[in-house]
Structure formats: structure tokens, C-alpha cells
Amino acid sequence: MIAEPEAGERLAPVPAAERSIVLVGLMGAGKTTVGRRLARRLDLAFVDADAEIEEAAGETIPEIFERRGEAAFRAGEQRVIARLLSGPPQVLATGGGAYMDPVTRANIAARGISIWLKADLDILMKRVGKRGDRPLLQNGDPRATMQRLMEERYPVYAEADITIESLEGPHDAIVETIVEKLKEFRTADAMQNHAGQDHD
């Protein structure tokens, strides 16, 4: 059992070949569905950060929000994601707000290859409408809330290593696009590291 990192702890970087694949994006972008298929395709374990947070807390995410507030949830989320990133490479699906935390973002940059699944508002609303367990959408106008979240979060999500359009269509096509982009990213990273070593 890996020890739970301290709040605010930043992880030391590892080479791209040893990093986890970390999916970021808004609720409804397809992180869990695509993540499971991507993990099978890459022969890696799939981990859902939200499920790990619920297990660590012994409460569901809506319960954590209701009983302890969003700040307590975000602190727990930061620690759990740091712990997961300290382990072996995996495909990790994160909650919509996780990447907004500067410490989590730094840890993902050090130990992960971040992939933003980017979707437009209509697709997101169609997908999240199927589930009623989204704490941030429990208000009178979920569409307006989602629009606001897009405006707040998309400029930060854009810092991810790779951006993939999450469109309507077969998830396997998205997975294949991710696999190709990962190859390109790792090749570029290896060449950059090699060039850096030549200058040492």
C-alpha cells in the first residue's frame, strides 16, 4: 500500500515511457468510457479517480460535497491523485475539476501524459443528462452551469499534453487517435531528452 502523499506534495518527474496516461476534461467528455477501452488497448490497468476518492472517504462524491463541502473534496482529490500517480503506469480518468488544481496539474505533468477529451456543449449535455449524480449540476439550469464550467476550465485544460476531440461516434476511433498521438508525444519527448543529454 503506497502511503498517502501530504496535501500540496509535488512529485518528482519520470520519463514519458514510465508515465501514466491521464484523461482530463469536463463531465460527459467520455473519460471513463474511453479510458477503459484505452487501458485494454495499451494493456494497462484502468483507474477512475472519483471511484478511488469514494473508496478512500467511505462516502459517495455527492455525500462529500453535501456533508463537507467542495474544498474538502478537492483536498482529498489532490491527495488521491498524487498517490495514484506514485504507482505504476496506468490509464487514469480524473474528475472534471481535478486538473484545475495547480498541484494536481504539476503532478500530472511530472508523472503523467495528460490528454484533454474536448467536447462541445450539446454533446456534454446529452451525455450528462443520463446521470443524476453530478453535484455541480444540481441546480435549476444545468446547461448554463456547464457553459460557465467550459468558460472557466477550457483555457486550463488546453495546457494538457494532447487534445482529442470527443465527438459523437465510435469510442474505438477516439482510442486509436489517442494511441497515435501518444506515439508522437513519446517520440518527441525521447528526442528532446536525447538532445538534452548531448548538451550535458
Summarize the structure.
Helix content is 54%, strand content 11%.
Ordered list of secondary-structure elements with their pairings:
Blueprint: E1 20-24, H1 31-42, E2 46-48, H2 49-57, H3 61-68, H4 70-85, E3 91-93, H5 102-111, E4 112-118, H6 121-128, H7 142-157, E5 162-165, H8 171-199
Parallel strand pairs: 1-3, 1-4, 2-3, 4-5
Helix pairs in contact: 1-8, 2-4, 3-4, 4-5
Describe what this molecule looks like in 3D:
By secondary structure, the protein is α/β, with parallel strands linked by helices. It has one domain: P-loop containing nucleotide triphosphate hydrolases (Rossmann fold). It has 8 helices and 5 strands, in the order E-H-E-H-H-H-E-H-E-H-H-E-H. It has helices spanning 31-42, 49-57, 61-68, 70-85, 102-111, 121-128, 142-157, 171-199, and strands at 20-24, 46-48, 91-93, 112-118, 162-165. A 5-stranded parallel β-sheet has the order 2-3-1-4-5. Helix 4 packs parallel to helix 5 (102-111). The model has no long low-confidence stretch (mean pLDDT 88).
Based on the model shown, name its key terms.
200 residues, alpha/beta, Rossmann fold, 5-stranded parallel β-sheet, 8 helices
